[in-house]
Amino acid sequence: MRARSTGKKVDAQVEVSLAEAETRGACLHSYSELVHKDLRRRLKLGQVVEPLPGLYARKEYWDGLDRGQRTMHKIRGLSRLRPGWVFCGPSAAFVLGASVSWSCLEPIEVVSSSGHRSLLGGRVHGRYANDDDAYGVYSDGIWTTSPLRTALDCARRMPFRDAVAVVDSLMVSGRFSKEEFLSYVDGLPGGFRDVARAREVASFADVRSGSGGESVARAAMWELGFAAPELQVSFCDPIDGSEYFVDFLWRLPDGRTIAGELDGGEKYVNPKMTGGKSVLEVMRDERKRESRVTASCDAVVRFSPADVADNRKFSQLLDAFGVPRDHEPLVVVEPSSGDEPLVDEVPLEAYGV
Fold first, then answer.
1. Which mean pLDDT values do the consecutive 10-residue runs of the chain (353 residues) have?
2. How far is the C-alpha of 245 from the C-alpha of 232, rounded, in Å?
3. Which of 104, 229, 285, 339 is most exposed by smallest CB count within 10 Å?
4. How far apart are CA 49 and CA 62, in angstroms?
5. Cis omega (within 30 of 0) on the bond before 107?
6. H-state helical runs in the chain
């Protein structure tokens, strides 16, 4: 009878703990032997999932989270399971609110003072660091590398397009300026690898970027050999005099202008972007805005994140609209094979759009 009573108490305790973890946006760690046994029982029954060894969440709750939310739940859970861990690279950038592609969120990265290590069955990577900047920022209950060190690590290791999105967004959020990041990179002591790559990203970064998706598109344009566009250029509505902005703008030598617009479906359904309007109302406003852009520019090229992810298609699209080139492509654009390209389908919100 006593064992049954204890079991009920533990079961109720776990229910409360799971709810509390959900409120914090975290996975629950098994903080005692009794709780661990109860969570393992629930796991066998399919009531909870174990995203990482020692971290749990109710299955129904977990199934309703997107990839970004799941990553933050795991990081918050790890910060309690391993309170001495300092998150770095894309993981730190994500915690700091940067635009990080979901494809770069795994594995989770933490600082390791004893060399590169594979942790928790390869689900977490330890990255070697032993300098002061690798420790010292406490954000949202989580230890991360400093914003500058985080940007450096992302710029050195991530694909160019994704690294630009991270650095742009950290600058936009006021974590540091472009000049501060360039100075930081130039002042690095010997021993850091891929500093030239970090300097390339730092030089290309731009605080005017409107979103992570726009940063990726701009970096893709550069890699494909196209001239860098002006960003967030304002125009006056010729009808009512109101001001509006275009994502990208190229001014040609003959005086013509070409506007570029990153188009995604989220602005039609995300309440934060619709302002309470219906999909029909948002679409009507968008058509009106596009007509005004067309009146002010000689051509308007629209593209989606999927277009940007397909080098050949994106290159052909920009060429078709006359976007100028001013350097050789930095990536190889494979000729058409007649088959649809493989595209990493990353939702727009994964880049902070």
1. 64 95 96 93 97 97 97 97 94 96 95 86 89 75 94 97 98 97 93 92 97 96 98 85 89 96 58 50 63 79 95 97 96 71 44 43
2. 6
3. 339
4. 8
5. yes
6. 2-24, 33-44, 59-63, 67-81, 89-95, 147-157, 160-172, 178-186, 195-204, 212-223, 266-269, 271-274, 279-296, 305-309, 311-320
Q: Judging by beta carbons within 10 Å of its beta carbon (0-12, 13-18, 19+), is residue 85 exposed, middle or buried?
A: buried
Closest CA to 135 of 148, 116, 154: 148
DSSP annotation of 231: E
Select from 309, 227, 284 the least CA-distant residue to 260: 227
Scanning the structure block, which residue is given the tokens 């406490």?
138
Q: Give 87's strand partners.
A: 110, 144
Q: What is the distance between the alpha carbons of residues 246 and 168, in angstroms, rounded to a whole number?
A: 18
Structure tokens at 75: 């990081």
Q: Which residue type sits at 76?
A: R
With vertex at residue 353, the alpha carbon angle to CA 85 and CA 94, rounded to the nearest 5 degrees, is 5
Say if residue 172 is exposed, middle or buried (CB neighbours under 10 Å; 0-12, 13-18, 19+).
Answer: buried
